[in-house]
Write a structure and sequence with these properties.
By secondary structure, this protein is α+β, with helices and mostly antiparallel strands. Among the domains are: about 255-310 and about 685-755 and about 765-900, Calcium-transporting ATPase, transmembrane domain; about 345-540, Calcium-transporting ATPase, cytoplasmic domain N (3-Layer(aba) Sandwich). The strands form four sheets. Strands 10, 11, 12, 13, 16, 17, 18, 19, 20, 21 and 22 form an eleven-stranded mixed beta sheet that branches. Strands 8-28-27-26-9-23-25-24 form an eight-stranded mixed beta sheet, with helices on both faces. Strands 1, 2, 3, 4, 5, 6 and 7 form a seven-stranded antiparallel beta sheet that branches. Helix 21 (about 650-655) links the parallel strand 26 (about 640) and strand 27 (about 655-660). Helix 26 packs antiparallel against helix 30 (about 875-900).
Length: about 900
């Protein structure tokens, strides 16, 4: 019956075909399975059952990526220019800068990437198959199309299977479809156009069997599975360039034009003034060196690396350095629901009876708790409707709950809803095993999506008691009576309507509502869903994760929109959204995936509706990508959180993909920029705060470095234009840029940030690192430093009669000290002159001490002093240099006080 070559096109939609036809097309006897020879042929044809391995990021690739910055390329051009004109020392110095920056970035990112790879490695999974008329356990990757796979509760599905047998079979497909409730499975075909979540005749790779047993025939393996198709979407999703990378590239482009423009202007002006061409070319090189902030790549890399290390201590593993800052720019978070906002663990919290409401205490798998009516404790044994409702919940059940006496957490297997019913029964002393000894189960009618009910038959005193649970609309139609403390009463139309209103009230409170009923029969083969006695409603809650509500409040307070995007039902999504504080009430709109049109076909009004909505339900992986793209097209910086396979393409497409490390699937973690090892949603808010602080620090040290470099450019340019000696030499500029500038800038990058950083709205995503205001500040600070240095240089040459060597040393010291004190001008103007984020930063004081020491070394160590053309300026020179260096600091502080007072 087997065949060596299969035409898989014959089973293009196996869920819509009778299983007998699928088996025939695959050429395999169900009761025997494939032979070893046939397995070998099919493995050779279809390959191993595994997803395509993600490309391992090599150390060489990580190293090469460190040189892709425009600023690094600008530095390389400056080095090449120095070598071309024989300025070997300057050229080597710039190359050293590039190497230091690359080394820091390489080591940090290599460590992060390897940590991510270690987190992604998972153990192998086995599958139970029937081959050659024997049940065997084999590695899952050895499965081939046509294999007969045997399924039991708790198994992980390792390929896409068309079911051929199903006994009370349910599967948890939340990782694939986003549906939090286990899905009932059967062998009957479904419609060809049935969406993935409704293909009940199939089970899919990457999902798990929650209860029951079954057999299925493999119809797809590896990349041909639904999981494989989603994995392909991940590869196709375009990875976004992060906002910080965009801003640094913009800054680099601007610096290139500034450098070329200023150098050309000075060279042409000097030649026109009759100066030697070689002298002017040397001046141009000095200007090129002066205009490029050599320390910027190093400081930016170290600041981001420090942010990465801080986040690692908070259980957030960052894959890319720039991802730290990008979270700070985030103004939209698209979050999954199941397992991200909720615990994915049902708890029975209320039983509604005919004449009363009974609250149930205890959470999760706890088996101790109280039953409270109007705040008073109730003994369930004294209340027949309550007692029978609890019994039905325990009897009409296929889960198991193992109770531990040593204070350990109870262990459960099965549908979370049924586990919750067992935990509730245990609080009343009803344990399933003991109850079944007294009332043995004789028959089960499995849950049917059409009837929306499940029933079990139990022998009791020579009769059969039927335990029924299901949706109220189904159970109430099958019920003729209702149980009250005094006995059974007829269920008239008014009573039915009252129960429906009670059901609606509980649903509006965010509870999943389940009706329970019973009946006594004489024959075990009688139909279960007739003439029932309604006992009550059980309200179950999938509790939000404890830290989610304050985290969402903090995000909203910081001006960050949080949007729920889930595969679950709209009502469930809306209830959870209200519970976690995402929306104020259940009137908030929840857009159904079926109502989402293709982006190209949206009207302007529909597009605005999509952009303003906070809840999206029943969405597909493709629709998640469309939602991210829609927000990105509007200029938003989008973070996407998730843990399921269905989240992976969106995680990669987003500006920042945030995956859950514990609950998250391998595909999701591979696609993410950031993995939360503790699955704490609150860590995202911490990351946003860190990102904002880091961006503020980056802006401070960029402003600091550029204003220092602009001063150097102005000093060289003005001196060249008036035919004066150069007040500072190219190699001295390099020394300042690599030593005295870098350490204070590094200190600014290590700051903790301002305490009010989360009280501000997100900055405009289009806002560059340097706004017009900041460029004006750069020019103003640069001019003040330039005038003070040139003023000291002129005094030294004229009034004090110093030689050129001493005057150059004095201008070098004036510039160096002015740049060091300039770090205090980086405080926010609203802060105190003495106590502010800069003066409280211990790294600033350490950097100043180190830099002053290095200045002394540069002047008084003979070899270095000779290389830099520096001499001892003497006491007068030191006093003049110190005095002139304080002018920019005093000017900056006065201007900050004036502008703060004027509000401008």
């Amino acid at each position: 019956m087997s065949q060596s070559v299969l035409d898989m096109s014959d089973i293009d939609k196996p869920w819509a075909m009778p299983w007998q036809e699928v088996v025939k097309a695959l050429g395999v006897p169900v009761d025997e399975g494939l032979s070893s020879s046939e397995v070998r042929k099919r493995r050779q044809e279809y390959g191993r059952n595994r997803l395509r391995d993600s490309e391992r990021k090599s150390a060489w690739r990580i190293l090469v990526e460190q040189f892709k910055s425009l600023i690094v390329l600008l530095l390389a051009a400056a080095a090449a220019l120095s070598f071309a004109f024989g300025e070997w020392v300057e050229g080597v110095a710039v190359v050293v800068v590039i190497a230091i920056n690359a080394a820091i970035g390489f080591v940090t990112e290599l460590k992060a990437v390897r940590s991510m790879e270690a987190l992604q490695r998972m153990g192998s999974v086995d599958a139970k198959v029937r081959r050659e008329d024997q049940a065997k356990v084999i590695p899952a990757e050895e499965l081939v199309p046509g294999d007969i796979v045997l399924l039991d509760g708790g198994d992980v599905v390792t390929a896409d299977l068309r079911l051929v047998e199903a006994s009370r079979l349910q599967a948890n497909e939340s990782a694939l479809t986003g549906e939090s409730v286990p899905v009932g499975k059967g062998v009957e075909p479904v419609a060809e156009d049935a969406p993935l979540a409704e293909r009940s005749s199939m089970v899919f790779k990457g999902t798990a069997v929650t209860r029951g047993a079954g057999e299925g025939i493999v119809v797809a393996t590896g990349m041909e599975t639904e999981l494989g198709h989603i994995s392909s979407l991940v590869e196709e999703a375009e990875e976004e360039v992060t906002p910080l990378e965009k801003r640094l590239e913009q800054l680099g482009r601007r610096l290139i034009w500034v450098t070329l423009g200023v150098a050309a202007l000075v060279i042409v002006a000097g030649i026109v003034a009759g100066k030697e061409i070689l002298l002017m070319v040397e001046s141009g090189i000095a200007l090129a060196v002066a205009s490029v902030p050599e320390g910027l790549p190093i400081v930016a890399t170290v600041a981001l690396a420090r942010g990465m290390w801080r986040m690692a201590k908070r259980n957030a593993l960052i894959n890319h350095l720039s991802a730290v800052e990008t979270l700070g720019a985030t103004n939209v978070i698209l979050t999954d629901k199941t397992g991200t906002l909720t615990e994915n663990q049902m708890t029975a919290v209320r039983i509604a009876l005919d004449s009363s409401q009974v609250e149930v205490t205890g959470e999760g798998l706890e088996t101790t708790g109280e039953f409270l009516r109007d705040g008073e404790s109730v003994d369930p044994a004294d209340n027949q409707p309550l007692w029978q409702a609890l019994e039905v919940g325990v009897l009409c059940n296929n889960a198991s709950l193992e109770q531990n006496d040593a204070g350990e957490e109870n262990a459960a297997v099965g549908d979370p809803l049924e586990v919750a019913l067992l935990a509730m029964g245990a609080k009343a002393g009803l344990e399933r095993d003991q109850l079944l000894e007294r009332k043995p189960e004789m028959r089960e009618v499995a849950f049917d999506p059409d009837s929306k009910m499940m029933a079990t038959f139990h022998e009791e005193n020579g009769h059969y008691r039927v335990a029924v649970k299901g949706a109220l609309e189904a159970v109430i139609e099958a019920s003729a009576r209702v149980l009250v403390p005094e006995g059974e009463r007829d269920l008239d139309d008014a009573k039915r309507e009252a129960w429906r209103e009670q059901n609606a009230r509980m649903a509006r409170e965010g509870l999943r509502v389940l009706a329970v009923a019973t009946r006594v029969l004489e024959d075990v083969d009688d139909p279960p869903y007739e003439d029932l006695t309604l006992l009550g409603l059980v309200g179950l809650l999938d509790p939000p994760r404890e830290e989610v509500r304050p985290a969402i409040e903090a995000a909203l307070g910081a001006g960050v929109r949080v949007i729920m995007v889930t595969g679950d039902q709209p009502a469930t999504a809306r209830n959870v959204a209200e519970a976690v504080g995402l929306v104020e009430d259940q009137e908030a709109e929840a857009i159904h995936g079926a109502d989402l049109k293709e982006p190209d076909s949206l009207t302007q009004e529909e597009q605005q509706r999509v952009l303003q909505a906070q809840i999206f339900a029943r969405v597909s992986p493709k629709q998640k990508l469309d939602l991210i793209a829609a927000h990105q097209d509007e200029g938003y910086v989008v973070a996407m959180t998730g843990d399921g396979v269905n989240d992976a393409p969106a995680l990669k497409k987003a500006d920042i993909g945030v995956a859950m490390g514990q609950r998250g699937t391998q595909v999701a973690r591979e696609a993410a920029d950031m993995v939360l090892r503790d699955d704490a949603f609150s860590t995202i808010v911490v990351a946003i705060e860190q990102g904002r602080a880091i961006f503020g620090n980056i802006r401070k040290f960029v402003l600091y470095l550029l204003s220092c470099n602009v001063a150097e450019v102005m000093i060289v340019a003005l001196a060249s234009m008036v035919n004066a000696p150069l007040p500072i030499r190219p190699l001295q500029i390099l020394f300042l840029n690599l030593v005295t500038d870098v350490f204070p800038a590094l200190a600014l990058g290590m700051g903790k940030g301002e305490p009010t950083v989360m009280n501000r709205p997100p900055r405009d995503p289009q806002e560059p690192i340097m706004t017009h205001h900041h460029w004006r500040s750069v020019g103003g600070y640069g001019l003040v430093i330039t005038l003070s240095v040139l003023g000291g240089f002129a005094l030294a040459l004229t009034r004090l009669g110093m030689g050129e060597a001493k005057a150059v040393t004095l201008s070098f010291l004036s510039l160096a000290l002015a740049q060091l004190w300039h770090v205090f001008n980086m405080r926010d103007r609203e802060t105190d002159v003495i106590k502010n984020e800069v003066t409280r930063n211990p790294y600033v004081w350490g950097a100043l001490g180190l830099s002053v020491a290095l200045l002394l070394v540069a002047i008084y160590v003979p070899g270095l002093a000779g290389l830099l053309d520096l001499v001892d300026p003497g006491g007068v020179g030191w006093m003049l240099a110190l005095g002139m260096s304080l002018v920019p600091l005093a000017t900056g502080q006065i201007l900050k006080q004036v502008t703060a007072r004027d509000g401008g």
